[in-house]
Amino acid sequence: MLTNKARRVLLVAFAGSLALSVASASDKDKVLTDGYASNEPVRPVLPVENIHTEKARLGKALFNDRHLAGNKLSCADCHQLNSGGDDNAATNNQGQDNRAGINTPTVFNAVYNFRQLWSGAADTLAEQIAMVVHNPNEGATSWPALLQNINKRPSLREQFDRLYADGVTEKNYMDALIEYEKTLVTPNARFDQYLSGDNDAITAEEKAGYHLFKEYGCVSCHQGVNIGGNLFQKFGIFYDYIADRGNITRADHGRKNVTGREQDDFVFKVPSLRNVAVTAPYFHDGQIETLEEAIYIMGKTQLGRELNAKDIELISLFLRTLTGQYQGRFLDDIKLSEAK
Ligand code: HEC
Ligand code: HEC
Predict the structure, then answer these.
(1) Considering 40, 127, 138, 158, which one is annotated as catalytic?
(2) 255 pLDDT exceeds 60?
(3) 39, 49, 181, 316: which one has the fewest Cβ atoms less than 10 Å from its Cβ?
(4) Which protein residue has the closest C-alpha to ligand 1 atom 6?
(5) What is the dihedral of CA 126, 132, 135, 138, to 10 degrees?
(6) 313 noted as active-site residue
(7) Which of 127, 160, 181 represents a domain boundary (last residue)?
(8) 159 has a pLDDT exceeding 60
(9) From residue 329, how far is each of 188, 227, 326 by CA, in Å?
């Protein structure tokens, strides 16, 4: 007999596979033009086209400039590009007064998420920036103060004046940052090479891991370009990880904090699994150190299955093939060379 919970999950999985088959049918022509396997539920990361290089360059300067939190923080302090695009901390702890109380997600490939933030509170990258600016634990500032601050930096101000008729404004600040965020994508993961037709790009064991990922139903939630980042799901369908951990915080309530609806309690944006091997620790609370442990917990909480050690290892080998390249270098190579 199926429990109600099991039925609900099967329905979700079924709806997921239905949506996928529709997508692959309408994408049929793409196989011919793009040359990658269109019948797979995972799609390769492609570079964003038509980026305004000059605006992206200004965006990069803004991303790295410490004009946030009383000139103590930059975006890059919490989103370290040489380290997976996150901060390697459980919950954010850059600067003593800055404790966001939730794990910092990577900025890499954020442009491909359907919403931003764990709770999906930001519909767009622009809304996300407006939230960081005002969040007392992150930007801790206001638009007037921030713009005044930027105006005091001649090189930034000069770039704004050159690129935008109205110079330093809230809208232009977001525009330049977003243009830069479009460059923060990581194509050419070994798994994407495989999807694009290179059958030898991943090993037999890694293929077996992908097969299990699909067979167990991980793919009903983690799918698409970001292998996540395109739907909301409750964390703890079969087993209440959060209650078991204890000390429930505001952040644990996830999407309910946005909608106020009871059914959104403990619901989160399904995170992207792109580059997941280099973005430990895991989950919105950052309490899980290893990928293997995260996979075990996913089986238990989301699928009602106790995965055995062998399957966990195979799935983890598959997930490690999702590490992509930034500026032509694999993110794990960048991490290693920076550590030396
Ligand atoms: C003090 C550390 C900190 C700083 C500074 C910071 N962030 Fe973040 N960022 C976070 C945390 C923590 C989250 C997750 C918050 C949440 O989900 O509620 C986040 C989330 C994001 C996301 C959403 C990613 C996703 O998958 O949902 C993007 C995009 C982002 N930040 C970009 C930026 C940009 C651009 C800046 C600079 C303007 C910036 N961040 C500054 C810590 C920081
Ligand atoms: C019913 C939907 C669902 C299914 C099925 C599912 N996941 Fe998840 N997954 C989520 C959600 C939601 C989260 C975020 C939980 C949180 O941190 O609040 C998540 C988080 C993760 C994370 C941590 C990512 C990070 O950056 O912190 C990993 C790894 C992961 N899942 C792998 C898997 C694997 C492997 C399977 C199959 C065994 C699986 N998931 C099945 C919804 C699902």
Answers:
(1) 138
(2) yes
(3) 49
(4) 75
(5) 180
(6) no
(7) 181
(8) yes
(9) 10, 21, 5
